[in-house]
Amino acid sequence: FEYITNGNHYVSASENEEVYLKIKNSVINDFSIDFFDDLKEEYIKYSSLFEDYLKTPDKYRENNNNQFIKEELIRYKDFFDTIENQPLTERQRLAVITNEDNNLIVAGAGSGKTSVMVAKVLYLLDKGYIKPEELLVLAYNTKAKQELEQRLSSKIKFLPNVMTFHGLGNHILKVGNATKILSIIATDNYKYNALIRKLIAEYILNSQFSDIIQDYFQEFFYPLPNIFSFKDEGEYWDYLESYEVRTLNNEKVKSIEECIIANFLYINGIKYTYEKLYKFDIQTPDNVQYHPDFYLDDYDIYIEHFAISRDCKTPSFIDCKKYNDGIRWKRGIHELNETTLIETYSYEKFEGNLLSNLKNKLKKHNVEFNPIDKKLLFEKLNNVDYIDVFSELLGIFLNHFKSNQLKIDALKMKLKSISDNQFENQDETLNDSVRRQEAFLRIFEPIFNSYEKNLKTNNEIDFNDMILLATKYHNLGLYISPYKYILVDEFQDISQGRALLLKELLKEDSVKLCCVGDDWQSIYRFSGSDISIMQNFSKIFGVTKRIDLDVTFRFDNQINNVATTFITKNSAQ
Fold first, then answer.
1. Pairing status of strand 512-517 against strand 485-488
2. How far apart are CA 531 and CA 97, in angstroms?
3. What's the confidence (pLDDT) of residue 395?
4. CA separation (Å) from 313 to 199, 235, 307, 324, 489?
């Protein structure tokens, strides 16, 4: 009881819980204890305090910690003034001496997080809370690890263990005598991407699989939000420019829906010309010469795609009356000149039947379908960078999939749930999005299986496997962690797999965790990081004390105010 009331220590939640249970079980509830005479007086003296403490234990702990912090700041003033080139700020000092079971230091851009980490290490060692070998410092990458080691080595003789997560995983597996080796693709992004490209190529050329991947590149390669969701024409064109929408014939088209139609025609061996001049000269002072969207050279057929809903409404940035007048004018031109026109519509895309409807319309006009050779398709996909873009996407997804320890069946069930929900709400946009994700998953599953088979055949693992195995080794007792304090840098870039490894290491008795990061600076989502882990820190790790470093040394308030106004539009941050 004196330990949590004398103000000489920072008392964590778990320590307070331990004292609480001892007092409750050994003193207040056990009146059968036969006190010696000298203990009776002590019991009378403390009993009222104990009873009050049992009613409000957190009050006593908070009072103690407030007293401790106040006095500790005075005791360590010289330390904080001189530990770095510049004296630490008040919040930096508070972050150093706060010693909860779990500590989250939110370090904004330029707020001196590395200084805090260095000071934290030196403070913990100086207080005698831990020995150097009991302290684990986890850096995000090798460069950050080397910087921390350099900063620490200039100040102390015996360094703590400074590692990357991959270094830690490798260390645990060595201690556990793992037989698998780390694959070269884990350390060489070029070879990793080359393997993914190779697997994609194999499946494009595989007759059993080619139709699935063909459908994806034909209809779902570009993410397509509902055209009716754009606020203005500028936003729409910015979107198209950001994806540099090009067909397999390397034509730059005016919409993703036009790209889908063009690719469908090309893949099915139907020769077309994009925006070919209409065969009859209909140019007038009020109208330029007509350019239908597509012309089928071998069949003398025109195709026009209209951006309208079922009730003939247009996106908000298009004049609805003028656009529908144009549709009627085009229909009239074809009727007048007896030329064949096939129409397609935006609503068909979001109802999921654009291409099936187009196929039926073409067949009614006796258009023949002669799908191109798979090798030629692969060459075309390569020439317009479809393969490069898709292999990068698939490689990133694979890394996410493994680092977050997902399962194919679970993803399928989730998609089914979303699909069922959109059916109930009649959300056509959501339906199209689900169809794209389902198409992607149909490709991903066999490629992932081949990727895993490739590792297994060579008795290899990747980094995600390493983290998973390291967690398993500790759980099975093949590795006993010597660490009493774990300090993690760049925590905003933590993945689910790494978070689970941390939780596993925290199962050892009396281990404390301190994580430093900034959810405004998370930039490694492509490598599997999950910002929600930092945002839900206390739910995942338990009782937490959060300290924000709110002074930046990198820029002034004029920049800060603009950045803050922008980033806080995200209600989750």
1. parallel
2. 26
3. 93
4. 44, 19, 8, 8, 53
Please, are residues 313 and 306 in contact by the beta-carbon 8 Å criterion? no
Specify the pLDDT at position 32: 47
Q: What is the separation, in whole angstroms, between the first and last Cα of the chain?
A: 39
pLDDT of 526: 56
Q: Tell which phi-psi region holds residue 526, choosing left (phi > 0), alpha (psi between -120 and 50) or beta.
A: alpha
Alpha helices by DSSP H, listed for 216-291, are: 233-243, 256-267
Q: Strand 301-306 relative to strand 294-296: parallel, antiparallel, unpaired?
A: antiparallel
- Is 158 buried (19+), middle (13-18) or exposed (0-12) by CB count in 10 A? exposed
Residue type present at position 24? K
What does the pLDDT read at residue 220? Answer: 87
Residue 140 CA to residue 164 CA, distance in Å, equals: 6
- On the 0-12 / 13-18 / 19+ scale of CB atoms within 10 A, 375 is exposed
Q: What does the alpha-carbon distance between residue 474 and residue 501 come to, in Å, rounded to a whole number?
A: 9
Report residue 240: phi and psi, to 5°: -65, -40
Q: Judge contact between 190 and 388, C-beta under 8 A.
A: no
The H-or-E segment that residue 103 falls in is strand 102-107
DSSP alpha helix (H) spans, 182-232: 189-204, 207-215
Ranges in the chain, pLDDT < 70: 27-44, 207, 422-430, 522-528, 573
Distance (Å, rounded) from C-alpha 469 to C-alpha 447?
22
What sign results for the dihedral spanned by CA atoms 135, 141, 147, 150?
Answer: positive
Phi, psi of 305 (to 5 degrees): -105, 125
- The pLDDT of residue 522 is 67
**pLDDT tens digits, residue range 376-386?**
888 888 888 88
**What does DSSP assign to residue 338?**
T
Q: Which helix (H) or strand (E) holds 104?
A: strand 102-107
